[in-house]
Design brief:
disordered C terminus; single chain; 5-stranded antiparallel beta sheet; 4 helices; alpha+beta; 2 domains
Length: 151
């Protein structure tokens, strides 16, 4: 589930901190008040965006603004193949016990599914909403890795 989100957050935070440090170390004395506050605004907003992505959006009060469910964790599932499922001869025709691990931030979500036969990792994810906004669905495309999983 290698996602670039962590590297992007770290890079933005380091650049924001470097900007603030360079501004302070340059010796340019900005008048106290609104001009000084505006000069440090990019750094403050960078930290705020990183905190929102990782943590703030999950707070119950802010969940109303986020409108995104918090699904991260380990989930158990039972898979039932259909008649149209492509299963090799001698393969498990179900029900199949599976575990799903979800890692989530506000802007990214990764899904990994384990069964005794294989492991699947999400490659693309999308939130969709029914008209009226009452139900949300997480849809993801996976790349399966065949083989027996040790867990």
């Amino acid at each position: 589930m290698a996602r670039p989100a962590a590297a992007v957050r770290l890079t933005a935070t380091v650049v924001g901190a470097a900007y603030a440090a360079a501004l302070y170390a340059s010796g340019v004395h900005i008048q106290a008040g609104p001009k000084e506050a505006l000069s440090y605004m990019p750094t403050a907003l960078t930290f705020l965006v990183a905190l929102w992505d990782i943590w703030l959006w999950r707070l119950p009060v802010l969940q109303l603004l986020a409108k995104r469910p918090w699904l991260a964790g380990i989930w158990s599932a039972t898979l039932t193949p259909t008649a149209a499922s492509v299963i090799p001869d001698g393969g498990n025709r179900g029900p199949i016990v599976a575990y799903v691990i979800i890692k989530q931030t506000f802007w990214s979500i990764g899904v990994r599914q384990y069964t005794s036969e294989s492991r699947s990792d999400s490659r693309a994810t999308m939130w969709s909403e029914t008209p009226g906004g009452s139900d949300r669905t997480l849809t993801y495309i996976v790349k399966a890795v065949a083989g027996v999983c040790d867990w």
